[in-house]
Every structure is written in structure tokens, then in C-alpha cells.
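hey so i finally got around to running the thing on that chain from the lab meeting. sorry it took forever, my laptop kept dying and i had to restart like 3 times. anyway pasting the input first so we r on the same page abt which one it is
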Amino acid sequence: MNNRNLWVDYGKAIGIVLVVYGHVVRGLLAAGIIEDHIFLHKLVDSVIYSFHMPLFFFLSGLFFWHSMSNRGANGVFLSKIDTVFYPFVLWSILQGCIEALLSNYTNGDVSLAKVFSLLWAPRAQFWFLYALFLIFTLSVLLYRRSAMFLPLLVAGAVIYIFQNRGPNFFVFNFIAQNFVFFAFGVWFNSIRGHIESRAGLVAALSGVAFVVLEYVFHGVLGLRYEDRGALSLVVAMTAILFVVSACMVLARKPLGWVLTLGALSMPIYLMHILAGSGIRVILSKFFGIDSVAVHILAGCVIGLVLPVIAAKILEAMGIKWLYEAPAWMSLDKRRQRRLAVAPRSL
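ok and heres what got predicted. didnt touch it at all, straight out
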């Protein structure tokens, strides 16, 4: 593993832990195990959602330009069909069908009609993959002609701030709310070396700024993460800088289990709802356990550990089609085969 990228896996690990925690607590609130009037859980939820998904869009943008330079626009686009759009479709259907079959035991009222409306109404955690594919597609078009890193970041920020004045359409909303963070990741490479060389100082300063901004945003102004505008953008950007610089410091003495969580963040993201919801149903319906602490701990541990175990088993068996398009239907692999054969026919 490239040492300079260890902090990226640390960032993914922090992000995926927050994702699992957030979904576990939301599931407990929906099930009535956590009383909905408890302010602390809702406050923590809003703080987490103010930056953890922006962090994933940022991390996705970090290597975009490098991929564009090496693979070209067509190569990047086709690879994202294989590695983003394909698992979005597959897992939306897999998880949706399971939820529909077990709807009597869960919080949801998932129907097969909702499951198969995924192309115009992405549901559950899979909205992220849908939005990410849209942003990759848009970025291929925007960046293919020139490296307009800072202008596109500024444009993304303006669209984010004034998104409420745009059309209320889910495609526009996904792009308006998240493209700026992807563009931040693309642009960040131009200052990456400067941040890495003084990561400790940046982490300390941005950490203090993050705490102050979250206090002002949630405490003084009484806002929530859905209240998007200039201040929420500053909060998210500051939080991303804090997490990234802190990860640069922590990754100097890397822990294997943290790197594993980061490297397997995609399988965890795809499977954690089934794992976390499953343990909640087992504890509450079959064992009558309603302890909030037990549910949160068990939900987070199972939501992280079971997908990791499953991913390791699938890897040992050579099964990759659950996370990316198999070779026989991979558009990117077909393109690579054509490019490999082309010189021989000259």
C-alpha cells in the first residue's frame, strides 16, 4: 500500500463508522427504542450529517484527475458504470427485496414497486452511489477539456449556496448539494503537500474552528444539517479539513484494523443496513432487549464486522461480482481488451 495514501483509508474508516452509527441510531428512533424527544441523539445526528457524506464525496474527488490523466474521460466513465452504478442497481434490488419480504419485522413499509423505482427514486443508503455516479458523469464532461480546478470549485460553491433558488428536482438536488465537495477533493491535490507537511498544526486549528462552527450552527442559530447555505458549506469544509489533517497525523503510525475498515468501506456501506437492522430485530423481537446502549453498541459492531467478514470470505473465494461488474459484462474491461488488440491489427 502506498504510504502517502494511508490517510485516505483512515478518512474512509472514520466516515464509514459515522455512517453506520448514524443509521443504527436512526433505526432505533424509528423503532421507538430511542424516545424521539431525546435531544442529544438528534443533535449528534445533525452534527454527523453536516459533514460525513461530504467527506466521502471529497475523498472520491481526490483521485479523479489522476484517473482522467491515465485512463481518459471514456475510461473513467465506463469504470464508474462498473464500480458505482452496477453495485447501486444490484444492491438496491437485493436489499430492497429482503426489506420487502421482512417488512413485518422492520420499521419500513418497503414495497417491490418502491424497490424497482430505483432509477428515478433511489432509496435507503444507495442515494449516495446514485449521486456519486451523476457527479462522476458531470465531472468527466466538465474536466475533460481543461484542468479548471479552482473555477469549478467556486462554481460548485455558488450553486450549493443558492441551491434553494434552483429547480426542485432530485438530479439537480444531488448535484447542487454534493458536487462542491467532490470539486474540493479534485482541487485539494494542489495544496495537498502543504497540508501534509504541517498536518498537526492544521488539525489543531481546524479542530477548534470545527467545534466553534458546530456550536454556532446548532447551538446559537438552532440550525440543522438540512439548512444548507453559506454557513453549512463552511462547516462541512472545515470538518473535512479537520478530519483529513487529523488522519494524516494518525496514519503516521497506522493501525491495521483502521486501514481494513477504510479499504472495505464500500462493502460495509452496501451491507451495513442489513446487518445493523438484523441485529436490532433479533435483540428486540426475539430477546426482548430494549437497552439503548446495547442496541447502539451491537448495531455498530455488527454493522461493521459482518460486512468485513463477508467481504474477506468473498475475496478468498474470488467472488467480485457483488461489488463490481463481472468481466463478461464490464464495459471498461471490454474497452481495455479492444485497446490491447488494436495495435496488433495495424
